[in-house]
User: Fold this.
Amino acid sequence: MKIAKFSKAEAITSGYKCYTYGVTNFDTAVGFYNTLFETLNFISHELEGVKTYCFKDLHVYFELRMAIPTRTRRYYKSKSLNSDPISIRVNSKEQVDVIYESLSKFDVIDHRQPRYYDLEGKEYYALYFNDIEGFPVEIFC
Assistant:
């Protein structure tokens, strides 16, 4: 992991896929994603309540923001329904497998074993799971 600044504006103008998630347990989410992404080449920057990950070779920009915890049903419902899954294409099946092994450190994660999927005549090897806040994530090659 390299520590450097790379802004969301730079990512957008460079054509990166950009994701911003509000999380209620910021420190736990940062620890989770640091562990999950440790095998991928990324640069990172953290300010108070904001952690960014930029995968230059994968063209993905990911941002975690500390959210104010609320207990309303509307908040939890909208949080899961309105968020697009994080979708990261990696370079090899081995990277998908290593990320799957990283998930085993977190027994609270809802995940499936990676496998091959056939989509429109193309074969993909993919891992699908929900992160510690319930956001859907897919890692594939």
